[in-house]
Each structure stands twice: as C-alpha cells, then as structure tokens.
C-alpha cells in the first residue's frame, strides 16, 4: 500500500501545483482535488479573519467560485499554489469585512491583518523553503522604505493603508514604494536562479 503524501510534502505540493495548472486549462475535476487539499487551511484563514463559522463558510465558497472563474491567473512559476490560495482567501475575507456583508462576531477590518495564525509563519507559507534564504538575501539588498514595508505587508500581514498611515504618506506613495521594491526583488530573485 502506497503512503499518502502529507500536506507539506513535496509530492503533495507538486500534486496541488499540477491540479492548479489543469484547472486553468479547464479541467473541472481538478477543482475537487484542490478543494480537498486546501479547504481546511483556507477555512482557517477565513475564520480567523471573520470570527464566524457561517461567514467563513460563505467566504470559502467565494474563494472556490472565484478560483474556478480566475484559475487562468495562477502562474506556477511565480508562487506556490498554497501561497497563492492563502492570499486569495485572506483577500476574500477582508473584502467581506470592507463591504459590510458580515454578520456580528467578525473582527473589525483594521484588526483582521494582525490576528495571530497558529499555522506556519507567513514567509514560510508564501515561499518554498529552499528559496527562503534567497528571498531574504534579496530583501536585504533593497533600500528603505521598500524593504521595511514589503516585510510588513507580506510577512506581518499589514495592509497598504495601515503602512501608509503609520509612515504618514499617501496610500498611492506606499503602493509605489512597494511596487518598485517588488520589481527590484523579482529582478534579484531571477538573477539568482
């Protein structure tokens, strides 16, 4: 009897990546495989932000409906599947908070980002372990304010609005700093591959 791959195993990650690619090519059976592999993690993200089981279930449903509609946007060369889906789930849950479609029990939107997560650290979740050192080395080559704000946004879960407010700059300025920093980060990472 063959052993079932654990969720964090390279085999499981590759199976999820292959299912995402198949889904983007229109294979509807791949959605069931993706759902089975990710529903617990993504529900946890939604529940942590929304603080209500029904709300988290509704947000999770939105995630998979939108995934079906937008699967072609996933680029396996740019992000691991679980990182992309986790970001997608977080954004859907925060969108529900912002639009006011949430029943009582949810946390205020400004508190959604800093809620602790018992799962892996954000940097470990967003990138594969073998690239973590390279990402941090490339981050260290960036100048401030891009370096500090990219770390706060992607590793600490801060929103661009929160960062802009704490830096006392317009939101557009913060977005520009992060966008330019991300472009430099990408160039550094591509040079190291």
Automatic annotation (TrEMBL):
Pfam families in the cross-refs: Sigma70_r2, Sigma70_r4_2
Keywords per UniProt: Sigma factor, Transcription, Transcription regulation
Entry superkingdom: Bacteria
RNA polymerase sigma-70 region domain segment(s): 35-99
Matching NCBIfam families: sigma70-ECF (TIGR02937)
Originating organism: Erythrobacter rubeus
Family: Belongs to the sigma-70 factor family. ECF subfamily.
Transcription regulation found in the keyword field: yes
Protein name, entry field: Sigma-70 family RNA polymerase sigma factor
InterPro entries the record matches: RNA_pol_sigma-70-like (IPR039425), RNA_pol_sigma-70_dom (IPR014284), RNA_pol_sigma70_r2 (IPR007627), RNA_pol_sigma70_r4_t2 (IPR013249), RNA_pol_sigma_r2 (IPR013325), RNA_pol_sigma_r3/r4-like (IPR013324), WH-like_DNA-bd_sf (IPR036388)
Ranges for domain RNA polymerase sigma factor 70 region 4 type: 134-185
